[in-house]
Amino acid sequence: MQIPNLHELEKLIRKPNIRPLLLADIGDFETLRSRMMKNRWRKTAEKLLKHVDKLLNDSIPQLPRSLYDDFFRTGRRHVFEEPYFLRRRAVEDLTLAYIFTGKDTYLDRCRDYIWAIMEEFTWVIPAHAKTPFQPGEECIVDLFSSGTAMLLADIWDLLYNDLDGETLEWIRYNILRRALIPLRDHYDEQWWSRSYESNWCGVCAGNSGCALILVALDESWSIDLLHKILKSIDGFLSTADPDGAWVEGVGYWFYGFSRVFYFSDLLAKVTDGRINLLEDPRIKASITFPVWMYLPPRSQVNFGDTGSTPSVYMDVLNLILKCYKEPSIAWYIQRLEEEGLLNGGSLRELIWEPAEVEPIPPKQTFKWYRRIGVIVTRSSWNDLDVPILAVKAGHNAEPHNHIDVGQFIYHCYGNSFICDLGVGIYDRDYFGFKRYENPICGADGHNLIFVDGRSQAVGRDYKGEIVEFKCEKDWELIKLDLTKTYSPDVLSKAIRTFVFLKHNGLILVDEVMCRENALVETRLHFKGDFQQTQHWVDMFTEKGRVRVQPKDPSTKVTIETHRGLKTRDTSLINAQYIRLIKWATGGYAKIQVYMIPYRTTVELNVRLIELEKKLSEIEV
Prior knowledge:
The protein has 620 residues and is α+β, with helices and mostly antiparallel strands. It has helices spanning 6-12, 29-36, 39-57, 65-74, 78-101, 104-118, 143-158, 165-186, 199-215, 222-238, 250-270, 281-286, 289-292, 314-324, 327-338, 347-351, 601-617, and strands at 294-295, 299-300, 366-369, 374-378, 388-392, 394-396, 408-412, 415-418, 449-451, 459-471, 476-481, 493-500, 506-513, 519-526, 529-532, 537-540, 545-550, 556-561, 576-583, 588-598. A hairpin with a 5-residue loop joins β12 (493-500) and β13. α7 (143-158) packs antiparallel against α8 (165-186) and α7 runs parallel beside α9 (199-215).
């Protein structure tokens, strides 16, 4: 992205702007009302009205200082954050209800919530705050203070002709005082302004840029701040994988990039299209990332702090479809809708009506994101039950990282039989010194190699690499060198190889060089019920089974359990894992295991023969 200098930028910005700017190329509320009467929005609007009718009578959740301080006493986040976010969601929902019906009762209640938000002593949540607070010296802008500023700027713009002048004046004053003036005076002090690999950079810069364009372009310092925001966004985009991935996972891709999309839309409006960030090839390359991370019917690849349920930002998907006419996005939306995963509704989802595009999945069945070291490969896009393999390399200091270099997911029959435990409960310890003591984030909770109970180390220097990716018609080979993810006193060499035989199954080979007679273990976390014998484990759901069977009968097979995990996936509170154990002979151990998807015994036996045959044919 070529960023114009300050003088050029000032010449490109059109001032003053019409209100509402958000609807500049769309129409008016009547246009939005007609959209809310059609297709999926009709059901969304019906649910919305039932919800907001309750808001008319319920008390506004209170946020006393004691609730704010609960985090500092206990480390809990949800006690304060749940009512905090409920207030903000109520503002958006009441605005949508007012647009749909034109009823003043919704506008009046929306106004009450707006004033309640403006009465908060800070918009920065306690987990991000620096105490003690000094009156009149707000200088921190976090994810949610910038998000609040953008939300209220949206409402200020959309309801400019509907809200009373006093409320409009106070909204603008609060946006300036709590977000834009702190950025004007302390931009370079915001840690996120140059932390380009973090979603914070995209979110905070995008939120603040939207608020700036909507309410403060007439300020003498606005172009200077806008220029700084553009530089941060340029840096943010520069760290994305050139093939279109985001190191923090698809959940944080949506979060970080959504704000860049929001900002891009407004910036294009006030420059008459002369600055259009959506033409940037780095953004265009990333738009299919959620498609590739999709695990049908209702899951997604969830490395790091990404949840297992598909992240859905319908406003962003609508804009992508409108701008790029990408068929695989249309296919992805269709899949999400068929699975009932498109819930709720947002202002921008309503504003950005998608283009009509024929839904077609990608032509290729594999994707290698080289910079972040992730490969996702599948047997087919059309059969939703067939196997999918996702493999991760990378390093152990990525933002929102887990200690998980070499982690993989094996998904079929609608279930991640070999799974990632996903994201834990956000609290003080989760992002503190105890983070990696938690199996959700630490090596203990991942599908890794262990030697004498020890696994990978923490830090950027501990990294792995995909050293080979071979694609044949009926099989693929992925080889990772994991040696540098371990301290030298744990092992001297670790190679992990996957042979993916599509429908027939998966071969995993772990090779380790370490001290003589060390206990070498491959750990596999799983979802589903199971049956166990001395030589294999069968995992099963209603739709099918996967057998985990070591090639060498001398490999010991046991099952262990993590008890009482603090995880968002309640099915994994007592997560179970398979331990495949060997002792190093001559300082070397090799664990080879077959993973065979099947529905009948005949199918199992045929596929086992195919796996054994392939292993004998290729060098692993």
